[in-house]
Amino acid sequence: MSDGSVQQKQSQPAVPLLEEQRVGEILAAVPERGQWRYRPRRVGLVWRSKTFRAGAVFTVLALCGLVILALVRDQTGTEGFLVGLGLAVLPVPLLMAAFRWLDRVEPWSWRNLLFAFAWGACAAALVAIIANSFATRWIATATADPAGADTLGATVIAPVVEESAKAAAVLLIFLFRRRHFSGILDGVVIAGFTATGFAFTENILYLGNAFGEDQQIGRSGFASVTAATFFVRVVMTPFAHPLFTVLTGLGFGFAALCARRHRIRRVLLPLLGLILAMGMHALWNGSGSFGPYGFYVVYGVFMVPVFGLITWLVIWSRQRELRTLATELPAYAAAGWLTPAEPLALSSMRARGMARDMARHQHASAYGNATAYSTSYGVPYPSPGYGYPAPGPPPVHSPAYGGSRVVAQVRRHAKAQAKARGRAAARAVVEYESFATSLAFLRHRARRGAADPDFVARELELLHHLWQRRGVAGPALTYAAQATGRLRPRYVPVGPAPYPPYGGYGPNPYLPPHAQQPYARPPYGSVPPPRSR
Asked: Is 497 in contact with 474 (CB distance < 8 Å)?
């Protein structure tokens, strides 16, 4: 039995073993990742999935929104909630547009901005309502002085709780979007969107309560409590909460500028910004206890000057970022990655916009002209590229092609395609500008000693994206640099041509390569002579 079993085993075909000398050949024949039939399983660590984290954040914010909606509606009533919502939404688009304008140099994605707004409107507002109510009741019970508890809660408790809750959004983006958090403007924009969302929810509560009070006492018009609350919170001080939280954002922005070896600064600067925000918030909430004119004194002597100072600081930071582009990108132009005109155009917001418009118009009109040319000579649909139509086919408007109806359909299709080509070209220029800006800031951080460990890999990736889009963005940016006066065109002397005239087609044999002009196109129906090589 044992001998037979051994012979049976030996008669079975043996499985070929992988020899060490053939490892390179077999690994070279492995298909690409997109064609894999067997994929590794993901075991555990579900929280590392981006989809899971995004779903968890969305779920938490949605639950907070539902709870805050129920609490505000319970305090204001249905009518008060609707009135407060309609009045509180008015300053939101203006504030968001202002912060978005500041963020035009290296804009954040709307996902991050909407997260910051939703955090302030839902999570931070919910924490503030619950914590402020609990603290005020506890102080009133402990001191048996409800009026003093309200004043202490508004002056001490509310600034600490509210600014800490709003600062949590800036901290989360600073930690999980560190590569995009590169300077002062990033902190200001994230803090501004967070505070705008918080002020939106708080204004609904205050305006809804004011409307309910007017309903009880029967007031209406300009003498009502609702009108006074709207004037103070929406007209005079729509920037109050953004101004407080922007101080925290400045702290995170300065921390982002620090080198990695300055760990103490990277911790203390955000804390200092948070403390300043709490102090300014406390001064603003306590202005009513300084006398009948305390509010106006704090508003005119303190709030307005600080608002002007911070506005100047953020505009200066925006101009500083543009100067960084003009300083860092010429190194890549000297290496051949960019043209000499591109750093000049990228450091001007006007030139950037002009380049996008020029690319959109140029690519749309070029496609439309080529299509119109082809339909005029009997080609029923746009043909790719440029070529001479063969003589002989009847015109499109003839009965062979269905008359003018087909012409109209072809032209409508061509118009839609031209618009799509123009939008694609403009999008390529926008992406090119974004990648070039990130490249300049990456190099700037490296020169300050704050470069990330993967600096080389990120630099190569950005250069790869730029090289893919340079065919569309390069000419547009060069044109914008010349049109805005940032790059003067080369002087061409007026006088007789320094080279003999040439009226043929193809390259001029008398001119050197750098002096060649665009080839003259032959008229329709003629056959161009062969080009000399």
From this structure: no
